[in-house]
Amino acid sequence: MGFRLKTSMQTKEIFEELGSRMNLKPFALCKLAISMSLTSDEPLEDYKSLDNTGLELNRQTITAQYDGLFKALLEQHAGKSLTDDEYFPTHAKLHIDRGAVMLKNKYNYSSNLEHFIKQIINNDISI
C-alpha cells in the first residue's frame, strides 16, 4: 500500500502558478484537481502520465479523514473495485495530473478565486 505519490512536473508547475494566484496549498489543489478529473467522461486509462518528477505528496495530506470517500469516488469512476495499490498512488496520481490541467484551463477563465467559486456554484463552469 502506497502512502506517497509524485506528480508530473507539469502538475507541479500548474500547482505553483495556481497556488500563488488562488492562495491555496498543493493539498487543496489536489482535491480540486481530483474533482475536476472525476467530471471527465474520458476513461482514466486513456490518460497516461509517466512523469514522476514533480511534487511528492502524502496520502494523509491529500485525503485526510475522507480516504474511504476518495477511494469510493475513484472506484465509481473506474467502474470497478480498486486494490489499495491501484487506488493510491496509481489512480490518484493520474486523476491529480489530469485534473490539474483541467483546473488550470477552467481557472484561466476566472478573474480570481471568488469569481471561480461563484461560477462553480452558479453552474457557469462545471467542476
UniProtKB/TrEMBL annotation:
Superkingdom of origin: Bacteria
Protein name in the entry: DNA sulfur modification protein DndE
Annotated organism of origin: Paraclostridium benzoelyticum
Lineage: Bacteria, Bacillati, Bacillota, Clostridia, Peptostreptococcales
